[in-house]
Request: fold
Amino acid sequence: MLIVADENIPLLDSFFGDIGEIRRVKGRGLTRHEVEDADVLLVRSVTRVNRELLEGTRVRFVGTATIGTDHVDVEWLKEQGIGFSAAPGCNARSVAEYVLAVISLFADQRDLCDWSDLSVGIVGAGNVGSELARMLERLDFEVKLCDPPRQDAEPENAETFVSLSEVLACDVVTFHTPLTRSGDHPTHHMVSGQQLAELSSEQLLINAGRGEVVDGAALLRRLDQPDAPVVALDVWEQEPAIDPGLVDKVWLATPHIAGYSLEGKMQGTEMVYQVLCRYLGLPIRKKAGQFLPEPALSKMSFTRNAVEDEALRLALSACYDPRKDDLRLRRVMKRAEGERAEAFDRLRRDYPVRRECSSLKIQLKGSSKSLQDRFRAIGFKLKI
Reply:
C-alpha cells in the first residue's frame, strides 16, 4: 500500500510506517501525477483535494490532519466511495492558547492590572470557539458568542448567542469560523468595511480562523484611517503570497501557526490514523501521548507573594510568546517579492517546537484557591 503524505504532517513513520510505504510530498501545489498510484492521501489545509486532483487515481482514502475541511470536496469523495477523515478539534486548545497569549499582550499594552476586565466576543462557536469560551469564562472574562448557523440549528439555546453587532462592541473580537461562500450565513468577507468601521482604537481584532473571513483590502484602508482598531492576524488572504503592506500595518502578524503546538499537530495525525485503521479493518495500537518528548521547560514555581494576574500571564508567555513569530514573519516580508511566498511556507514547515500549557507543571506555595483555579482553567498541571 502506498501512502502519499504532506511532509509537514508529524509522526508519519510512527503512525503509518507499518501500514504501507510512505512517500512524502510538498502539500502546496500537489499534482495528480504525484498521487495517481497512491492508495491513501494524507494532507493539510494547503492542498486542494477534489475531482481534478483525484479522478482516475487509485486513492481510496483521504485524511486531512486539520480541523477544517473547506479545502476538500467532501461530497465528491463520498460520491466516489472514497473514505475520508478530518481531525476536528485536534488543535482547538493550541488556538485557544494562542488567543489568550495575544490578549495578554494587549492587556499589557493597555496597562491593565486585571486582564479579565476585557470583554471578549467570539465569532464561531465550534471546537475552537467553544474551547476558548470555556477557558475565558473560567478566568472570569465576560464572553459573548456569535454563531448564526448554530443559533438557527439550536433554537433551544438561542439565548446563548448574540448578533455580530453585539460582538463587535466587545473589547476583543476574535474569529474562529470555517470559510463558506454560500448558504444563509456565508463567512467570506464577513468582516469588511461596514464591520471595521464599528471598531475603534480601544478594541482588538483577532483572526485565527480563515484568512478570507476578513476583507484584507478593506482592513488595509481602515488601518490608514483615524481611530483604527488594534489587529492581530494569524491567517491571511492569498496565502502564501500574502500582502506585505498589510503585515506592516497590523499590530501582530503570525504565519498561520496558531494551531501549531506539538500536541495539536500530533493529535491531528492520531485522529486520521484511527479512522484509517477502522477503514482498513486494522487494530488501533498507537496514541500520540506515547510519542510526546519531554518538554524543554517542565516546571515553574510561584510563592505566596505572587500576584495572580502576573503569575498566570508569566507562565502563559513562558509556554508561548507570539512576538517571536511576529518577528520571523516581518523579516520574511522584507525579502524580494518572488521569495516571500516560499519563505512563508518555510516558516510553517520549519516551525520550532511549541508545547501547550499542559506540558508545564506549576508549583504553587501558599497560593490562593483562586489562583489554583485560574491555572487549571488554562490547562497547567499543578503541584500544591
Notes: The mean pLDDT is 96. The two ends are 51 Å apart (CA to CA).
